């Protein structure tokens, strides 16, 4: 059920970086809320064997214990993805897929990065020529055009809703909607054309995207395809706030040694800060981010404005 929630520090992500940030921020007596779904963490399905002091375990066991530790420290959990974030005075306001509004003084971005692709013909060939992985980054290129979003989770649905402000016609292709009912209802109340129970076989065109071939043989004429196969990603949320990305790749959030971004009150940790993709790195960065975010949230308002 949608609600308004106040906290000192909001941690976006339930992987090793996010859980460690929550543990340390809560230990510093900050009121911590963690957003996300542990089962969606890239570490959840892994076997852990090269992490110091742990002689073999599963990612699932490690993350579940991390959640219990964070809860023992006082952190709260909301098993919903963030779909938007905006600056307020003196902090930030986050909207979740279920419609809840979270007001906080500091944010830790620890959602990992999306490395999921469709792996269909035409996807690589038309990247940058109609194929995109970031609605917030590229929506304005498709003004008054027909576009499709491919995906089943919050990133896909929120992307489709955003594209309604730009495109002439928006399609959403998904096997099954996997979002909170509030978000699903919002989608169904809009002009987005939902192709549920369908998937993409190929992306077609000559020099640019011209159509999608669906698995039932349908050809859907489109000029743009947004591939959004997970939760709303760090890069997209960071773009809404003006958080600087790594200038060489534009794939990772730039931070200093205190895990601070260029936006005061916004910290980042884990895979979204770049390789190596290791739990040890994520935990270390999460520790620093949690401590720094808690300290920032405890400052008087005049020092953070």
UniProtKB/TrEMBL annotation:
SUPFAM superfamilies assigned to the protein according to its UniProt record, in alphabetical order: FAD/NAD(P)-binding domain
Keyword Flavoprotein part of the UniProt annotation: yes
Matches recorded under Pfam families: Pyr_redox_2
Flavoprotein keyword on record: yes
Domain FAD/NAD(P)-binding: 8-286
Database matches in Gene3D superfamilies: FAD/NAD(P)-binding domain (3.50.50.60)
Keywords: Flavoprotein, Oxidoreductase
MF (Gene Ontology): oxidoreductase activity
Membrane spanning residue stretches: none
Protein name listed in UniProt: Thioredoxin reductase
Biological source species: Desulfoglaeba alkanexedens ALDC
């Amino acid at each position: 059920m949608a609600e308004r929630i106040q906290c000192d520090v909001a941690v976006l992500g339930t992987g090793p970086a996010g859980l460690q940030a929550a543990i340390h921020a809560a230990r510093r007596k900050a009121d911590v809320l963690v957003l996300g779904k542990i089962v969606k963490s890239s570490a959840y399905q892994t076997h852990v064997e090269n992490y110091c002091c742990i002689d073999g375990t599963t990612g699932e066991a490690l993350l579940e214990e991390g959640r219990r530790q964070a809860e023992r420290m006082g952190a709260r959990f909301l098993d919903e993805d963030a779909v938007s974030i905006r600056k307020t005075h003196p902090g930030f306001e986050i909207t979740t897929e279920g419609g809840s509004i979270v007001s906080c003084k500091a944010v830790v971005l620890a959602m990992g990065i999306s490395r999921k692709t469709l792996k269909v013909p035409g996807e690589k060939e038309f990247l940058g020529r109609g194929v995109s992985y970031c609605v917030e980054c590229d929506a304005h290129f498709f003004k008054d055009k027909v576009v499709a979003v491919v995906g089943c989770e919050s990133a896909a649905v929120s992307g489709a809703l955003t594209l309604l402000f730009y495109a002439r016609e928006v399609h959403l292709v998904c096997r099954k909607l996997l979002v909170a009912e509030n978000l699903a209802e919002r989608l169904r109340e809009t002009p987005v054309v939902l192709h549920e129970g369908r998937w993409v076989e190929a992306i077609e065109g000559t020099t640019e995207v011209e159509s999608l071939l669906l698995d039932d043989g349908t050809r859907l004429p489109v000029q743009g395809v947004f591939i959004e196969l997970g939760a709303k990603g760090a890069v997209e949320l960071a773009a809404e706030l003006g958080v600087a990305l790594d200038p060489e790749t534009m794939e990772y959030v730039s931070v200093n040694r205190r895990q601070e971004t260029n936006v005061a009150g916004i910290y980042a940790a884990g895979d979204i800060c770049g390789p190596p993709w290791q739990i040890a790195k994520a935990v270390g960065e999460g520790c620093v981010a949690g401590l720094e975010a808690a300290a920032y949230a405890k400052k008087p308002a005049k020092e953070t404005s």
